[in-house]
Design brief:
By secondary structure, the protein is of the alpha+beta class. Strands 1-2-3-5-4 form a 5-stranded mixed β-sheet, with helices on one face.
């Protein structure tokens, strides 16, 4: 960044020097023309009447000459700008093509990995392996959704600095809702973030963490025998943090969190300068805070 700023200042100084040189050159030539041409007119035509006519002709010639030079300069400037615009358009087209190709390959590769894990999961006889592979599938699926969001914004917004995180979380929830319904549970979701911006380095941790919490709901339903469990997932903003809260309605305790899930959520919270509130005995909820003020 410091090197780029130095180069930018260097280019500005070079452009300023050229502009000053051309202005000074015009001033010198114009002044010499006025003084020398006036002296020549007085020397050749001593009478006042002829001097007035020649001064008029001399002034018109100066205007025409400077207008021709100005036309030439502006014409060349506009041509160079048009050529630069065409090159930038070509570069942008190449960039869009590369982004599309990269997204296509990443999406296909992630889907391939999800499918391979699914095949391995279905053929596994170990409950622990079955659960671990399911967790891996869910996490990769969350990464795929985040990658799609990055791709859409890279093409539409022409920037990778900020974006609204609400559509990404909505898509995550829609992905998990059918599986939760098949498990006999109900999920009540409230997303109240508005246009909360999210930088690229925070999009993946927040998406992965929210997906992990949704996977936790599925695991709870798989282990429960009564079914018809109601969960509330509240996603909002509190200060400089995104708050993701899971509440198990109707129960005095929320759930037991596995060590893998706890380690992942804790790591994501620390990565975003947030925190995690682990449910204690008698608590029906737990909360994860993802910080928004992290600087890269």
């Amino acid at each position: 960044m410091e090197k780029q700023a130095h180069m930018h200042r260097k280019r500005q100084n070079r452009a300023r020097s050229r502009a000053f040189f051309l202005s000074a050159l015009y001033m010198v030539i114009g002044s010499l023309w006025i003084f020398l041409s006036d002296a020549a007119v007085i020397a050749v035509y001593p009478d006042f009447e002829n001097q007035a006519i020649l001064q008029l002709v001399k002034g018109l010639f100066f205007v025409l000459a400077t207008a021709g030079i100005l036309y030439r300069v502006i014409h060349r400037l506009l041509i160079s700008q048009e050529a630069l615009r065409e090159r930038l358009s070509e570069r942008q087209s190449e960039h869009d093509l590369l982004v599309r190709e990269m997204h296509h390959r990443i999406k296909n590769n992630l889907q391939f990995v999800i499918s391979m894990l699914g095949i391995q999961r279905n053929s596994s006889r170990s409950p622990d392996v079955f659960e671990a592979l399911g967790n891996s599938q869910a996490r990769i699926r969350a990464l795929a959704i985040a990658n799609s969001a990055l791709y859409r914004d890279a093409l539409s917004l022409r920037t990778t600095s900020v974006r609204s995180m609400t559509p990404v979380l909505d898509e995550l929830v829609r992905t998990y809702e059918p599986f939760i319904a098949l498990s006999g549970g109900k999920l009540r979701v409230r997303v109240d973030l508005g246009d909360t911006p999210l930088s690229d380095d925070l999009l993946v941790p927040v998406s992965l963490g929210t997906g992990e919490i949704l996977s936790l709901v599925m695991h709870i339903l798989e282990k429960e025998s009564n079914g018809n469990s109601l969960f509330s997932l509240n996603i909002g903003r509190s200060g400089d943090a995104v708050v993701v809260e899971l509440v198990h309605e109707g129960l005095s305790q929320c759930c037991e969190i596995s060590s893998d899930t706890f380690d992942l959520l804790s790591g994501l919270a620390v990565q975003t300068q947030g925190s995690i509130s682990v449910p204690e005995d008698g608590s029906d909820r737990f909360v994860v805070l993802f910080g928004l003020s992290r600087k890269v």
